[in-house]
Design a protein that fits this description.
six-stranded mixed sheet; 22% strand
Length: 149
């Protein structure tokens, strides 16, 4: 596997792990809702049900986010190379290395760190369209792009 394939694989793993967690939360909340309706009555019962409903709504929103991330990952063409930063680019800078994809945080491959970032994140917006040797400012730091692959 080349570096881009590995980074994309790690991003997919990140999304699948999030999906599994959200599905477990939904399943657990559904079971809790069923037992809530069988048990007590009164204010305590209503509060418990309302809290579970809120958790279910939150989980549904997370599912939508996961779906969005999967859609973004499916748009990445790792065979496409360009000297201009785009979705799927690996950007090597003086400070850090970035993979323009989804916000999946720090990924470590072969003892090197890469930050999987969304193109809509503040740093992602700055990097999009940049070229090798371009300089940009982020959080008060001036950073030079060494290479884009």
């Amino acid at each position: 596997m080349n570096l881009k394939e590995q980074l994309l694989y790690e991003c997919r793993k990140f999304v699948n792990k999030r999906l599994q967690t959200v599905q477990e939360t939904i399943s657990s909340n559904q079971k809790a809702l069923e037992s809530e309706s069988k048990s007590s009555a009164g204010d305590k019962h209503e509060t418990g049900r309302a809290m579970l409903q809120l958790e279910m709504e939150k989980a549904s929103q997370q599912l939508a986010g996961i779906s969005d991330m999967n859609a973004i990952l499916s748009k990445i063409d790792i065979s496409k190379t360009s000297n201009i930063a785009h979705l799927g680019s690996i950007i090597f800078t003086e400070k850090a290395n970035y993979f323009l994809s989804i916000s999946a945080g720090q990924l470590v491959i072969a003892d090197n760190s890469y930050f999987a970032i969304s193109v809509s994140s503040p740093i992602g917006k700055l990097l999009l369209g940049k070229k090798q040797n371009d300089v940009f400012s982020f959080q008060g730091n001036t950073v030079k792009i060494l290479k884009i692959s």
